[in-house]
Design goal:
The complex is a heterodimer of chains A (about 260) and B (about 550).
Chain A lengths: L3 E5 L7 E2 L14 E4 L2 E4 H4 E4 L5 E5 L4 E2 L9 E5 L14 E4 L15 E4 L22 E4 L15 E4 L15 E4 L15 E4 L10 E7 L2 H8 L1 H7 L5 E7 L7 E5 L3
Parallel strand pairs in A: 1-6, 2-7, 6-8, 8-9, 9-10, 10-11, 11-12, 12-13, 13-14, 14-17
Antiparallel strand pairs in A: 1-5, 2-3, 3-4, 15-16, 16-17
Chain B lengths: L2 E5 L2 E4 L4 E5 L2 E4 L2 E3 L9 E4 L3 E5 L1 E3 L7 H9 L1 H6 L19 H10 L2 E4 L1 E4 L4 H9 L8 E5 L3 H8 L4 H15 L3 E5 L3 H6 L18 H15 L5 E4 L9 H10 L5 E3 L7 E2 L7 E2 L1 H10 L3 E4 L6 E7 L2 H7 L9 E5 L3 E10 L4 H16 L6 E2 L13 H9 L1 H8 L4 H6 L11 H16 L15 E5 L4 H6 L3 E4 L2 E5 L2 E2 L7 E4 L6 H13 L4 H4 L12 E4 L6
Parallel strand pairs in B: 1-6, 2-7, 8-9, 10-11, 11-12, 12-13, 13-14, 14-17, 17-21, 26-27
Antiparallel strand pairs in B: 1-4, 2-3, 4-5, 7-22, 15-16, 18-20, 19-20, 22-23, 23-24, 24-25
Helix pairs in contact in B: 6-8, 9-10, 10-12, 13-14
The chains are: A mainly beta (about 260), B alpha/beta (about 550).
GO molecular function, one term (chain A): transition metal ion binding
Enzyme class (chain A): oxidoreductase
Keywords (chain A): Oxidoreductase
Chain lengths: ~260, ~550
Amino acid sequence: MTGLVLTPREEFEARVDLGGMLPGMADLAKHKIGYGGSTVELGELFDVSGSANGRLTIEGGGRLDRVGARLVEGEIVVKGDVGHSLGSRMTGGAIVVDGSAGDFTAAEISGGKVAVAGSVGAHLGAAGDGSRRGMSGGVVVVAGSAGRRACERLRGGVVVVGGDVAEEAATDLIAGSLAVAGKLGANAGRGMKRGTLFLRSADGLASGFHDAGDHDLVMLRVLVRRSPELAAFLGKDVTKARRYAGDLNIAGKGEALIVSR
Amino acid sequence: MSAVRITNGKVLDPANGEAATLRDVVVVDGRVAAADAAPANAETIDAKGGIVMAGAIDIHSHIAGGKSNISRLLMSEEQRAIREPKGEFCGCGGGLSTMTAHATGCRYAEMGYTAVFEPAMVASNARHMHAEMADIPFLDTGGYLVLGNDDKLLDFIATGASQQEVNDYVAWMLAATKTMAIKIVNPGGINAFKFNQRKLDLDEQNERYGVTPRKVLQTLVKAVKELGLAHPIHLHGCNLGVPGNEQTTLDTIAAAEGLPLHLTHVQFHSYGTEGDRKFSSGAAKIAEAVNKNPNITVDVGQVMFGQTVTASADLMSQYRNRGIATPKRWLGMDMEMDAACGIVPFEYKDKNFVNALQWAIGLELFLLIEDPWRVFLTTDHPNGGPFTTYPHLIKLLMDRSFREEQFARLNKAARKASNLLEIKREYTLEEIAIVTRAAPAKILGLTDRGHLGAGAVGDVVVYREDKDREAMFQKADYVLKDGRVIVKDGEIVDLVYGRTHQVAPDYDKSMDSKMDRWFDEAMGYKAKTFRLSDDEIRGGRGTVRHQTVRAS
């Protein structure tokens, strides 16, 4: 069950670009990867052991960028930290990181699951350069905190952050859900069109959000059944929520639900 | 001493009357030299089966500056989708209609272009534009300064300043911005737009200054003549893209009163109002007028089908077109007291009546204007289509059956409305050499470019003779820039940077203090901050200055 195991031979002198490396690849050691400004074979930087069965473990992280970018299926486990663009534009499969991750984590993914035990940088699940749409499907769970502009232009899917998020979260969010268990940075939800923010407090919401009062939402029970990640955040049998509507500055139909536990 | 000898090629050099002469071309220390000037150990290029021409010159292509940069931001998905292929000397940047600086140089060089001129430098953008042009490899560049909507000039005209004073002002601005020529975009119209006028014909008054486009045009045409600039006024006239603007264009030609005038992207100014859809070709009338008036030169601004981005200082017309933006986004902005800027992404479709007819109008102009020395090959990159479509355009001009094949795909009503099929003319290779090389060099006053006579700059191109002219002009076999081989078999093999060209006519020094005062009163910065120095051009290399004879 272990599948392939990559062990770094020594400490990296430059950043390693693992974009395009997929767990199901035969002859992984010959796969070309970026190393600083040059291109090297993966076998030069990592010891490759085990056999390909769709699961790939990287023993120890560090300066590893674009791990699992464009992943379609299979599972990647990283025992350590990773750099930017973890799982960006993936369409399926799963990535588990037991350290922290950099900017553009899960940017523009359309399916699959990304779990990060530590914190992530800016632009979590957001739109990358040259795109008008962020993550459009899949699930992202971050146990720690997230940086600026988390879920900017999010188009779909569920993102759960266990810690705080920095300012400008959910800017121009189009659809999809973001749950934040910790504190919210300033100006969250500015330009939000649709979609839902699940929060513990309304502090930090953009000025265009207006208090719509307490609600008894049976819908939340259905949601909890459908999404175990949101269930962990909302708790069982919760229906009470304070609802804020926004961003009314752009006549947005989004909402922020304040759910206490 | 570096020397290159190109042997066995047919030399096509219309400026010196050479039509496919079999002779050697020798380049010594970056200049074309006599055949016996090369030392025995000179590098030899065998051009057997090839055509040897001077490096091509694009007289009108928006390759740098504020509008290009904003287009890149507005169409960021294009930057992501179209990346430059990796190579030893390329591989950074991308885009097509919003191409980045390095990619622009590479794509032009591969086609055999060695000089490209940016036709719209808004004065307050000059510093940025020069910096960006310096980042474009392989190409000689230069900017045309946009005047005619700047408040200072309109103020001069409105308050009845003498022609002499206007000339001094124009010369001061040319020197300050280090530019090649004067461009007018919608004379007075952009300024009028800022005061809520939404159209301005040749004889309508700008409400703020009471000045007509005709007056602006005639004042500047005279200034260029009296300053002795080689390139006439580069005019983007009134009513761009408006059906029925053919009359405005004819009036504009008459308004030049025999003085030299260059009408740019004239295709966009050659529309009639006949037919059910009130949109028709005015190409025949415009071509007739151009044929009759030897003082007029034109570049066509051919429309090529596909996605592109239109970027222009003409905010009046861009504002009008904002509703047809594809994809649906546009941008307009004010540029200090100089002009404005409008970006509208657009996709030209062959099944669309108007677009199809625009395509046909452009080709009609190319084919009906008789003198190839007075018409230039452009698509007004990126407004009519990206410059990478030039080889396709050359094939359309040179190959009648191919042209008819493409014509058959057009929108049916457009086919009915066009007379293109009646025109039998095909461009010869020599005529292509004229419209892409010899004539642009002549009209820009670049005496050592666009030909292969002794003393010319060592910008030489070898194309492999091919019946498919598109394939032939897509990738040059060899391209030499200043005597160094930069392209071999269509691949970039060396990195060379070109020079920036400028003209610097004299002006009365009292203009210095007048401009100091104007900047203090009206602008957000000092005149000395505005003025560019040679240290800022190409890392201190400075410009190539072209002499002007100031007529007294």
